[in-house]
Structure formats: C-alpha cells, structure tokens
Design goal:
single chain; 227 residues; mainly beta; Double-stranded beta-helix; 4 helices; 19 strands; 15% helix
Length: 227
C-alpha cells in the first residue's frame, strides 16, 4: 500500500492498493476511486463497537474498499479546511488515543474502540473531551486535522493544557483528564471555554489550530433570524 496526501485547503489522501489490499472508512469518507475497487459495508467489529462509534460521532457502519487488481487507487477527503495526519501504528505498540471525529480512514489491521476518561464526572462535564477512541493494531491510520497540525513531544511529567476542541490525538503513554477553568471572572469574562484538557507526558501530542465547533458557533450566531 502506498499513499499520497494531496491538496492544501481541503486535502485528501490518495491510496494505491495492490490486489487484495483494503482500506476502511466511515460513511461518506470516499472522494474518488479508479476501476478495480470493490466496496462492502458492515458494522465493523460487531454491534457493541458499532454503538460505541455512534457516541464518538462516527458512523455505525463502516465501508471497506478492497482492490481487485494491482495499482487501484482510492482517495479519502477531509470535511473541512485542514490537514491529513498519517500515523503508522506499527511504530506505536501502546496505540493512539484519538479525538472523536478525527478518524478518516485506516488499513484493516487498525482497530478502533471507545475509551473514557478515568474521571467520569469531569469528562461528562467536559463535553467534547469525554468520549475518545483508542486506535490499536498494525498498519496505517489517517486522521483529519482541522486547520494546521502541531506536534509536541512531552517529557515525563510535562504538562500541556489544551482547549478540548483542539486536541487531535496523543500516545497512550500520555495521561489525560478534564479540568475546569479556575476563577469566576475567567469563566464569565475570559471568552474561553469552561474546560481544558490536561495532558501529562511522556509521549507525543497532536494538536489542531482550528476548533471547528467554536468556528461553527460563531457562524451560526451571525446568521439572520426570522421573527
């Protein structure tokens, strides 16, 4: 399997498959394909994993595309302006924790499952940051990044606090919890969200510069309303 990330504003990843090789994605993820690709749709991983994906904002059913001949090409596109992050899970034995909505596509050897914050109450209040996905296995995983991607390598005990909507993924060696912004003045006058994601190293963290939830909220607030 070979791949090429194409485009700049709303990028895609175009994958070249040999006969028998496959990629899977959520509903609507495929942008284009050449002849020689066969599609099958199912509840990948069984009913429970499918229901778990529903809570993360992904589709219940996944589509798998399998090459019927060598050099067949298929492309998967992002949904908003941003970037595509390629991750070789074979190099991450502990897997990767992924923000909901960040999954774009993957090879069949990559398994996705729902994971939860250890602090249930904080995660529940934290909204965006509560439900995450655990990506494990072997093969290539492609993530959708809103805006530009920033990578940080945290040392042991090093802390990084990020707005929950700006977290894309982090290595499973990084501990995670949701904390509230301190001070009533900061909460009501600061203009930021109420919650931050606290990430503690060691491990790699992937951040996105665009919080699309906040962006969409600003657009909606400026739309005219009928009386």
């Amino acid at each position: 399997m070979k791949y090429q990330i194409m485009g700049q504003t709303v990028p895609t990843v175009e994958v070249t498959l040999n006969k028998g090789e496959s990629m899977y994605t959520q509903k609507g993820g495929m942008a284009w394909q050449t002849d020689g690709i066969e599609m099958s749709t199912n509840a990948r991983g069984g009913v429970m994993k499918s229901l778990g994906r529903m809570f993360t904002g992904e589709s219940i059913f996944m589509s798998t595309y399998t090459a019927q001949r060598d050099d067949a090409k298929i492309a998967f596109a992002t949904t908003v302006p941003g970037d595509v992050k390629a991750v070789n899970l074979s190099e991450l034995p502990n897997g990767l924790t992924v923000q909901k909505g960040a999954f774009l596509c993957a090879e069949p050897g990559v398994e996705l499952s729902v994971t939860f914050s250890k602090r249930f109450s904080a995660g529940l209040l934290g909204g965006e940051g509560f439900i995450l996905q655990k990506a494990e296995g072997r093969g290539m995983l492609f993530l959708e990044v809103d805006g530009d991607q920033i990578e940080r390598d945290l040392g042991p005990g090093e802390v990084l606090k990020v707005d929950t909507g700006n977290v894309v993924a982090f290595e499973s060696t990084v501990s995670y919890e949701i904390e509230t912004v301190k001070g009533l003045g900061n909460i009501f006058l600061g203009g930021e969200g109420l919650f931050l994601t606290k990430l503690v190293g060691p491990g790699k963290v992937i951040i996105q510069t665009q919080n699309f939830g906040d962006f969409a909220g600003k657009i909606i607030s400026m739309m005219p309303r009928s009386n």
